[in-house]
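Predict the holo structure. Ligand: s-citryldethia Coenzyme A.
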Amino acid sequence: MLNEATLILDGQEYRFSIREGTEGERAIDIQDLRARTGYVTLDPGYGNTGSCQSAITFIDGENGILRYRGIPIEQFEQAPNFVEVAWLLIFGHLPSDAEYQSFSADLTACANLDESMKHHFEGFPRSAPPMAILSAMINALSCFHPEFFDLEDQAHFRIAAAGLISKVRTIAAYAYRHSIGQPYIYPDPALRYVPNFLHMLFSQPYAEHFCEPVVRDAINLVLLLHADHEQNCSTSTVRMVGSSQANLFASCAAGVCALWGPLHGGANVAVLEMLDQIYQGQISPEDYVHMAKDKDSKVRLMGFGHRVYKNFDPRARMLANVAERLLSTLGVKDPLLDIARKLEEIALEDPYFVERKLYPNVDFYSGIIMRAVGIPTNMFTVLFSIGRLPGWIAHWWEQAQTRGSKIARPRQLYVGSGVTDHVPRDQRS
Ligand code: SDX
């Protein structure tokens, strides 16, 4: 197999080395393309461009494969444990029992916010989008922990990572409680990650929320299935911001902003709004799929399609099973799940979707699960952020630890006007 690519430009041959990944995927190394040829590449949306080498997650989009540090995602389905997956992604191996217990203890110890952070929540209108609050408060968190700015050694980094992963729940819960005018509920050190989060969301000062094991497992799985996904839009944002040596909190706050978009993490909200629109509007799933195929309708089948998966998103399959299991165990009948199933059935047999290789993605069923647990729609992308945080942290750290890591600074192709002179205002038409 050739280990070089030849480019002929203006009659001259240039050879570039080929890099091969663990799973045989291949890349043309063009790091010195401009220096040698004067040319740059053009790839809007970076669909063909590798921004880095990474050892964290592997996706085979053609075959619907997703692995965290080499472990197939399906193997986390039994006894799902988000905290364990967070450790795996960040530190590169499954934690020993001692590592797991120590990391859990760190998460418990770091769960509280500085009391004066509450003033920030009070400053937001009740109607403030929770993603705006989340991004702002992650940044604000760094003001209370200056020790997290210079994460030179792994011990410092580990405490910062635990602090962020733990406190993001408290921030999310406080944002929700503020939006409904209810008192903040402090984290309970006796509770594990997910039960503690649901406690802060749903308990009352006089009535403790109890987390059913089936709910604990469902939300652990939802979070871990969102934990990382190679160089998606928000993770690339975290790497881009981190490449300037901005601190971990600022980088992850930027990741929240990128994830907010309806084409990315905001899709889980858009899916529920779509299902609800179909249900309330008594639109037939067939008619909605017809609209989604019509470019003029500006309607998309939200939760369908993916830049990388041209086969089933393995996370969608697993979340569909969790939704069925959770709703039947809780005895919840949700007409929106029936509509989702019908949409999937129709689309998977429709040439428009088949030809474009559009399958359900991670967002198609996740909202059904969160809704069944009582999480409001406007908090869905916040949960996606909580889930994705370990992935962002892992990538930020991997980049920070990479020798010779440079600030990200893409090139462009300028297509504006040629050189022109400035015209004083009194001489302009
Ligand atoms: C996430 O990158 C990641 O890994 C993301 C993520 C993660 O874990 O980080 O997996 C999470 O963001 C999942 C995606 C959530 N977004 C949605 O569900 C929104 C709906 N999906 C699309 O908008 C779209 O499929 C994207 C944005 C996900 C992917 O877009 P691409 O790869 O840029 O594809 P495209 O927009 O160029 O579409 C190709 C064709 C077009 O038709 P033609 O011009 O070829 O005729 O497919 C059509 C599109 O119109 N199409 C859809 C569609 N998605 C693509 N048509 C109807 N409904 C859809 N959902």
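Residues 154-179 form the longest helix (26 residues). The beta strands are 4-9, 12-20, 26-28, 57-60, 65-68, 71-72.
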